RNA sequence: GGGAGUUUAGCUCAGCUGGUUCAGAGCAUCUGCCUUACAAGCAGAGGGUCACUGGUUCGAACCCAGUAACUCCCA
């Protein structure tokens, strides 16, 4: 079989992904093994795969594949969340295209359209994940509005309500007048906007004078409940206890005192409008001011405004400015910039609005959830997020859990005709509850609350509800898989999602939902801008996969992804990834081209033992990297093991010299078998990062015949073997020797093909006979002679404490050689000086640990030995 | 305004609770090679006052204080 010159990933990807699926390698069911569980952060059904998903899911897949290869029962649960606001917006848009207005539909009709939309588009992102190689147990795919999942949400609501932790109340919310729902703080984008500051005069009651306030929202003056001044403001002491008239409508409002008012902003007089500003609302509560709401749900003025009724807020602003001007109440206007919130979904300017909402009390839930993180039961990686988490959990406000939408779990609260309500799982149960209030009620007299629950309220249950642990808290699955092991997510949802899962976990099961939370950074472009659709600076992940292969993209993502820090993504990393795949492919080609010749005596024992040691050293490092979730370091360790140790050194050491006229290069059986076995182990170590290439090679006949289920994906990772540290250290010197010979050639403009003789004056205990074949092969050395004295007139170098001499057929440049040696001598003298200074320092000798002093002594001895060699050489040069 | 974080080579990052010849890696750059696995390659080389200023210490990239720049979160 001839092998292609370069690796082409596409065919391998399709072939092996379906092979894995066919043979159920992703499937997990509880058994006797130790479980290893990850629940996916459910992507939004409206979403398509972006670079953030790529990163996040690559990490999860690496973790899950590694766990599988360590013999754990690995279970990765996939799914999506219903994303109330985003999805409802998409559905409304779809209906609009079809000429249907949401207002004309009943709730049931709308929901059937929404489900239609979800069935059509909601699974796209999961299909895309398959291209990446994600080894999720697809049979477990969940959606937050699946029947059982929704029922769990309702159960949880009822549970919390019974505990008295859910209540209804009027609150200032972020109102999106376009979609006519409250949105959460995280769905509001703040932008700097150029505005005008209007200075408006209010007549003081009983006097022929006025005060002036400054506001950006003159259209809200009709909702004013007071004017507030700072009691320490000496300009206004005469106004204490007075009242003023609102211009145009002449309503009388009091002047109140509060230190909240900044004296040097505007005029120092603040109009207080409790219904239309959060800070004013709080001030109003404090001073028991009336609340006058002059806006409708669509942000037009209502009859309480008395004037401009029915006008949109922005039009009203322009008109009222004119009216004020005409009335002589407008002192002046000024340009002013301030932050305005816009709805993430509709881009409408957010209106602070008082409305009746459902809330969940947070302090009781937050306190234990904080403890899990502080006492280390739940580990945040990196740890720096603990502070952020604590800060938030200690200052948490009650959570607005209602949304004025239809797509989601409808709040299970039922109103009686008299306005009272009961909370129950079903309408029937609600009726039973209602009968305690009024025994004569019929089921038709109950009406369910219109609102649905915040999506986070359901995703907060995710690690429990995917195993049906809310409805059936003692089922076999939840008992086996929960708590899960690792969660991989973005820091920006640490509070909204992670914290709420910990709360729910504690509340429902009295345990954490996961042990480790690995927080990834934001994927930015190389200019540091967040990748986004609107900027158009994000590559399409599927295009990247087509271009570089899934393995290449996976490696590329991880090469630039330190935990918890943002990553500056550049396609070049993917290029490096696919280059790596190609390197492995070619190494494979080399080994594949060998043929065993039994007549050749084994001669690579040293190389084999050395690489086995290096391999084990790498395994130790990789284990420790994974234990600390340093995935990109573990990858780099693997990368260097394969590229440097295996390809650049080991294969070069053992590869048969070119044999003329022989199509297949001949090699001894011992070397061949050892190399094939190394290669197989390398495939295993690489598999979590590069699943497709490794699986493809795994099945090559080079490794013998495989049974149907003998796949790399389920192979067990190699065990850490013996490490011959002395051998590793000595080969390091040998590598220096080889490099120096190459360097000598290079600096003397000699061709690499030119074989050279080498002599060694060994001062160390290294037995160069052992390494002679390696030095000859890698350094292109004709002979290695052992000498007792320096060879004059030859180029020399030092490796370790041993001296080497290369006799060239050309005159050596004495001046350059002397310069080089003198430079080295000066460095060594300086170095010795600093070491001796330490050793001569009484306080160092008294304070430093013994091993450190020992080290300094060794440094001194080594340096002295080298210095002696350098000085001898210098003398030789002079003579 | 409050809180958190970052600052090490041209770029992206390590540097694991001060002490190896400690200032590192990968990429990029430069030089030389189309050497029968790989030019997506091979062999070499050059890059850094560890943001700045002080302090603690026998010893600081690392600990402390302050300054500056940038980023994120909350208001």
From TrEMBL:
Residue span(s) of domain Methionyl/Valyl/Leucyl/Isoleucyl-tRNA synthetase anticodon-binding: 610-757
Enzyme class: ligase
PROSITE patterns per record: AA_TRNA_LIGASE_I
Pfam families in the record: Anticodon_1, tRNA-synt_1, Val_tRNA-synt_C
Gene3D superfamilies associated with the record: HUPs, Isoleucyl-tRNA Synthetase, Domain 1, Valyl-tRNA synthetase, C-terminal domain, Valyl/Leucyl/Isoleucyl-tRNA synthetase, editing domain
Enzyme nomenclature, EC number: 6.1.1.9
Residue interval(s) of motif 'HIGH' region: 43-53
Reactions catalysed: tRNA(Val) + L-valine + ATP = L-valyl-tRNA(Val) + AMP + diphosphate
Sorted UniProt keywords: Aminoacyl-tRNA synthetase, ATP-binding, Coiled coil, Cytoplasm, Ligase, Nucleotide-binding, Protein biosynthesis
Start and end residues of each Valyl-tRNA synthetase tRNA-binding arm domain: 813-877
Residue ranges annotated for the Aminoacyl-tRNA synthetase class Ia domain, each copy included: 15-569
InterPro entries: aa-tRNA-synth_I_CS, aa-tRNA-synth_Ia, Anticodon_Ia_Val, M/V/L/I-tRNA-synth_anticd-bd, Rossmann-like_a/b/a_fold, tRNA-bd_arm, tRNAsynth_Ia_anticodon-bd, Val-tRNA_synth_C_sf
Residue sites binding ATP per the record: 533
Cellular localisation: Cytoplasm
One Gene Ontology MF term: valine-tRNA ligase activity
Keyword Aminoacyl-tRNA synthetase in annotation: yes
Motif ('KMSKS' region): 530-534
Protein family (similarity comment): Belongs to the class-I aminoacyl-tRNA synthetase family. ValS type 1 subfamily.
Subunit-structure text: Monomer.
Entry note about domains: ValRS has two distinct active sites: one for aminoacylation and one for editing. The misactivated threonine is translocated from the active site to the editing site. The C-terminal coiled-coil domain is crucial for aminoacylation activity.
Protein task: Catalyzes the attachment of valine to tRNA(Val). As ValRS can inadvertently accommodate and process structurally similar amino acids such as threonine, to avoid such errors, it has a 'posttransfer' editing activity that hydrolyzes mischarged Thr-tRNA(Val) in a tRNA-dependent manner.
Protein's UniProt name: Valine--tRNA ligase
Organism the protein comes from: Mucilaginibacter rigui
Gene that specifies this protein: valS
């Amino acid at each position: 079989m001839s092998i292609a010159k370069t690796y082409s990933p596409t065919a391998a990807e399709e072939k092996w992904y379906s092979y894995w699926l066919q043979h159920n390698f992703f499937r997990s069911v509880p058994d006797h093994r130790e479980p290893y569980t990850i629940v996916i952060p459910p992507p939004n059904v409206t979403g398509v795969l972006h670079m953030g998903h790529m990163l996040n899911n690559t990490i999860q897949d690496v973790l899950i594949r590694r766990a599988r290869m360590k013999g754990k029962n690995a279970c990765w649960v996939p799914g999506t969340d219903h994303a109330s606001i985003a999805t409802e917006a998409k559905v409304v848009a779809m209906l609009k295209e079809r000429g249907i207005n949401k207002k004309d539909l009943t709730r049931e009709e709308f929901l059937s359209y929404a489900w239609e939309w979800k069935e059509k588009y909601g699974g796209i992102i999961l299909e895309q994940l398959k291209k990446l190689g994600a080894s999720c147990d697809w049979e477990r795919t969940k959606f937050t509005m699946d029947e059982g999942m929704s029922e769990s949400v309702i159960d949880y609501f009822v549970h919390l309500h019974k505990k008295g932790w859910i209540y209804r109340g009027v609150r200032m919310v972020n109102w999106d007048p376009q979609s006519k729902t409250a949105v959460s703080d995280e769905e509001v984008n703040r932008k700097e906007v150029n505005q005008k500051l209007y200075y408006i005069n209010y007549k003081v009651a009983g006097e022929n004078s006025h005060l002036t306030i400054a506001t950006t929202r003159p259209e809200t003056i009709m909702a004013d409940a007071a004017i507030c001044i700072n009691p320490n403001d000496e300009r206004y002491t005469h106004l204490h206890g007075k009242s003023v008239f609102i211009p145009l409508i002449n309503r009388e409002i009091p002047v109140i005192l509060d230190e909240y008012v900044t004296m040097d902003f505007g005029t120092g007089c603040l109009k207080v409008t409790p219904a239309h500003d959060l800070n004013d609302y709080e001030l109003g509560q404090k001073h028991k001011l009336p609340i006058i709401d002059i806006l409708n749900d669509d942000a037009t003025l209502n009859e309480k405004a008395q004037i401009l009724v029915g006008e949109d807020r922005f039009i009203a602003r322009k008109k009222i400015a004119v009216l004020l001007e005409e009335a002589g109440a407008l002192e002046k206007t000024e340009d002013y910039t301030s932050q305005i919130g816009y709805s993430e979904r509709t881009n409408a300017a957010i209106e602070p609005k008082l409305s009746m909402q459902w809330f969940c009390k947070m302090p009781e839930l937050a306190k234990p959830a904080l403890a899990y993180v502080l006492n280390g039961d739940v580990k945040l990686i990196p740890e720096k997020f603990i502070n952020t988490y604590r800060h938030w959990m200690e200052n948490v406000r009650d959570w607005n859990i209602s949304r004025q939408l239809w797509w989601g779990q409808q709040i299970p609260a039922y109103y009686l005709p008299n306005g009272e309500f009961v909370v129950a799982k079903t309408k029937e149960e609600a009726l039973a509850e209602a009968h305690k209030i009024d025994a004569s009620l019929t089921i038709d007299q109950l009406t369910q609350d219109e609102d649905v629950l915040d999506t986070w309220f359901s995703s907060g249950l995710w690690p429990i509800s995917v195993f049906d642990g809310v409805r059936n808290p003692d089922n076999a699955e939840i008992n086996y898989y929960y708590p899960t092991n690792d969660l991989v997510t973005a820091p920006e949802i640490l509070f909204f999602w992670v914290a709420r899962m910990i709360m729910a976990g504690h509340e429902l099961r009295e345990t954490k939902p996961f042990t480790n939370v690995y927080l990834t950074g934001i994927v930015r472009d190389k200019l540091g801008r967040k990748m986004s659709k609107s900027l158009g600076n994000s590559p399409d992940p599927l295009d990247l996969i087509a271009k570089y292969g899934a393995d290449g993209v996976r490696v590329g993502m991880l090469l630039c992804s330190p935990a918890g820090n943002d990553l500056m993504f550049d396609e070049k990393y993917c290029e490096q990834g696919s280059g790596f795949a190609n390197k492995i492919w070619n190494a494979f080609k080399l080994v594949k081209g060998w043929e065993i010749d039994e007549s050749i005596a084994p001669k690579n024992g040293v190389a084999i033992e050395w690489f086995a040691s290096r391999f084990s050293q790498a395994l130790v490092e990789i284990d420790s990297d994974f234990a600390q979730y340093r995935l990109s370091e573990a990858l780099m360790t693997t990368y260097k093991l394969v590229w440097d140790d295996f390809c650049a050194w080991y294969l070069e050491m053992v590869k048969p010299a070119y044999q003329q006229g022989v199509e297949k290069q001949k090699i001894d059986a011992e070397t061949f078998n050892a190399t094939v076995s190394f290669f197989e182990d390398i495939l295993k170590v690489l598999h979590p990062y590069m699943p497709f290439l490794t699986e493809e090679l795994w099945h090559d006949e080079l490794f013998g015949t495989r049974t149907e289920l003998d796949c790399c994906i389920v192979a067990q990772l190699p065990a850490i073997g013996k490490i011959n540290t002395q051998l590793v250290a000595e080969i390091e010197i040998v590598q220096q020797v080889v490099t120096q010979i190459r360097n000598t050639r290079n600096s003397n403009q000699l061709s690499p093909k030119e074989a050279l003789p080498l002599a060694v004056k060994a001062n160390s205990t290294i037995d160069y006979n052992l390494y002679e074949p390696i030095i000859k092969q890698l350094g292109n050395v004709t002979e290695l002679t052992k000498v007792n004295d320096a060879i004059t007139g030859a180029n020399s170098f030092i490796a370790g404490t041993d001296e080497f001499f290369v006799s060239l057929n050309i005159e050596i440049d004495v001046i350059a050689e002397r310069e080089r040696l003198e430079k080295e001598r000066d460095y060594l003298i300086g170095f010795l000086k600093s070491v001796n200074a330490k050793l001569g320092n009484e306080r160092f000798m008294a304070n430093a640990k013994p091993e450190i002093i020992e080290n300094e002594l060794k440094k001194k001895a080594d340096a002295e030995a080298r210095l002696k060699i350098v000085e001898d050489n210098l003398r030789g040069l002079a003579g």
